[in-house]
């Protein structure tokens, strides 16, 4: 009996904002490029069993379709944003990538955060049986682990440990001189720039990881292994 692949759910609600490959490559050369769903999909396909989601409901539907006790690892691949005002730190399944200025705008319809987990808590806890007892959820998104205000509520609801990254998760691609197009084989490569090497242009795309599982998260929450009750005031209680 073969070993099942990790389930990799990627944010598929970020349309590619470039008219063609040369325009996208020009954006990368100008340091205004950010990944879109085509890159997240490639990462998911290179790292496990890929499935696209644009909303939290999509994510829950994907998990519900898995056999009971089958999920040993769930990866979430996409954009994340720090909390602003009343909105807590958030993973986004959908949004808009802009070039001028370079930015990823998360749409509320695709939010995964303490508030949306609060409102979907019963639906989420009903899916705990799809996970193995030692399963982990890993969030492949920039600064998702800068604090535990996103990791804690996910762990609490799903009842498993959740891992994230303090530093940026960076994507890249390479230009194919023979075809004058982006080499599709290089889509989805990822790197965690913990030492600022990529920002200093000391790391090239060829050194990025094809398989996201090679990245090592540096922040974890296992609060869901000990907490069995729905927390109060999610935007406040997850500040630590």
In short:
The protein is of the alpha/beta class and 240 residues long. The protein contains seven helices and 15 strands.
Model description:
- This protein is α/β, with parallel strands linked by helices.
- The protein has one domain.
- Helix content is 22%, strand content 26%.
- The strands form 5 sheets. Strands 2-1-3-9-10-15 form a 6-stranded mixed β-sheet, sandwiched between helices. A 3-stranded antiparallel β-sheet has the order 4-5-8.
- It is globular, with a radius of gyration of 18 Å.
Helix content: 10-25%
Average pLDDT reading: 91
Q: How big is the Rg? A: 18 Å
Helix and strand content put the structural class at: alpha/beta
Q: What is the terminal-to-terminal distance?
A: 43 Å
Strand order of the largest sheet: 2-1-3-9-10-15
Outline the low-pLDDT stretches.
none
Helix-strand sequence: EHHEHEEEEEEHHEHEEEEEEH
How many domains make up the 3D coordinates? Answer: 1
Counting DSSP E segments of at least 2 residues, the number of strands comes to: 15
**Strand content range:** 25-35%
How would you describe the shape?
globular
Q: How does the SSE layout of this entry go?
A:
Elements: E1 7-11, H1 21-29, H2 37-47, E2 49-53, H3 56-64, E3 71-77, E4 79-81, E5 90-92, E6 95-98, E7 103-106, E8 111-112, H4 114-119, H5 121-125, E9 131-140, H6 151-158, E10 161-164, E11 169-172, E12 175-176, E13 181-182, E14 189-192, E15 219-221, H7 234-237
Parallel strand pairs: 1-2, 1-3, 3-9, 9-10
Antiparallel strand pairs: 4-5, 5-8, 6-7, 10-15, 11-14, 12-13
